[in-house]
Design goal:
This protein is an alpha/beta fold. Helix content is 28%, strand content 22%. A hairpin with a 2-residue loop joins strand 15 (301-304) and strand 16. It binds pyridoxal-5'-phosphate (PLP).
């Protein structure tokens, strides 16, 4: 049965599941409102690609739309199609733009393509001319990421022939920061200047520039609209400083077995942890098949209440082992839930222990978890 007041994956039950993933929609909405208020009068969109960073676009996007978010970004056409069936009215922008021969899909489903090259601009313009009706597009200018977007030589062609913008229905221009999470990095200012020059070479068009961390670089990076992703989901947009965002995710793994161990015994595959003295090891039903990364072997930790319990030994496919020697037996029994992401070990702390970033921890969250969505999406308003 779903857990009130949210609901969950119908395949699992919070009583039988090996782990429970709780996603607080009120916190997502509160985070979006916080960013919106910070950037106003610029508009605040929401990046919900990769299934809203693993948290479930099907729940997150409607909650944000109900809170007043009207513009959503996804990476792929198929993500746009899935979102359109949930949000009939929203603006849905597809960052990869049209793949060759897919222009009609954009038109049919009112998806807004982000055009990343002269080639995409040309195909989209030809499609619009044949269709005989305009449709808006975004234009991505590469200012230093060198991944997507018009490189300088292609921008020069457009700058010399503004008719190309009109033919492709370009309604706004955007760019993406490479180092926004490092405020002191010189590339931030370089990209800002390159973007300003690019805009100056084009007719006046609304601009979209900042991601989550870019928002905290200040208004010079906001443009007319911002595109936060990870901060909506509780990731810290200001690494090294207190996280201004509300936590969204809690992951609780369940202890399935506890055993007494004695030196010189070892724990897990590869015998990578050597027990010192006597102790107790709790085995929890979460593993790398659930996105609990193998790099957390002998590095991650859980919390039972406010007591830290370190991961000892290797993360295996379905299981991890935690040292609970210092805990009373009654607080670490089979059935006990251990916070693997929670108030004491938020996403970014888990990421640091794993040697990665919060984005990867979130987008790897597994399909076997019993998912519970809490909050009504009003963000407590
Ligand atoms: C073009 C673009 N804009 C915005 C974002 C959102 O970035 P963040 O999650 O850092 O806020 C992304 C994410 O990768 C992106 O690719």
């Amino acid at each position: 049965m779903p857990d009130s007041p949210g609901d969950a994956c119908p395949m699992t039950d919070s009583r039988t599941a090996g782990a429970i993933l709780t996603i607080d929609l009120d916190s997502v909405v509160a985070n979006w409102r916080q960013l919106r208020d910070r950037v106003g009068p610029a508009a605040c969109a929401a990046v919900v690609k990769a299934d809203a960073y693993g948290l479930g676009a099907g729940r997150v996007a409607p909650a944000l739309a109900a809170a007043g978010c009207t513009r959503f970004f996804v990476a792929l056409i198929d993500e746009g199609l899935a979102l359109r069936s949930l949000l009939p009215e929203a603006e849905i922008h597809v960052l990869c733009g049209p793949l060759p021969g897919t222009e009609d899909v954009f038109a049919e489903h009112r998806l807004t393509p982000v055009l990343n090259s002269l080639e995409q601009m040309g195909s989209w313009a030809r499609f619009l001319a044949a269709r005989g009706a305009p449709l808006a597009a975004g234009l991505h200018v590469d200012t230093g990421m060198r991944r997507l977007g018009l490189p300088p030589d292609e921008l020069a062609v457009v700058a010399a022939d503004h008719g190309r913008l009109e033919a492709a229905g370009v309604a706004y221009v955007m760019s993406h920061l490479a180092c926004a999470d490092e405020p002191e990095h010189p590339l931030n200012e370089e990209q800002r200047l390159v973007f300003a020059d690019a805009r100056a070479a084009l007719p006046p068009l609304p601009a979209s520039f900042a991601n989550s961390s870019g928002i905290f670089l200040g208004p010079a990076f906001h443009g007319d609209s911002v595109r936060p992703g990870v901060a909506l989901y509780g990731g810290n947009p200001c690494p090294g400083h207190p996280n201004p965002m509300a936590q969204v995710v809690r992951l609780q793994g369940r202890i399935v077995q506890v055993r007494d161990v004695d030196s010189p015994q070892t724990v897990g595959y590869g015998a990578t942890h050597q027990v010192a003295g006597t102790g107790r090891i709790a085995t929890v039903a979460v593993g790398y098949a659930d996105g609990y990364l193998r790099s957390l072997s002998n590095a991650g930790s859980g919390y039972i209440g406010d007591r830290r319990v370190p991961v000892v030994g290797r993360v295996s496919m379905d299981l991890i082992t935690l040292d609970v020697s210092h805990l009373a037996e009654e607080s670490s029994r089979p059935g006990t839930l251990v916070d693997l992401i929670g108030p004491h070990n938020p996403v970014d702390a888990v990421a640091e222990a794993a040697g990665t970033i919060g984005y990867e921890i979130l987008t790897a969250l597994g399909r076997r978890y019993h998912r519970v969505y809490t909050g009504d999406g009003t963000g407590g308003a």
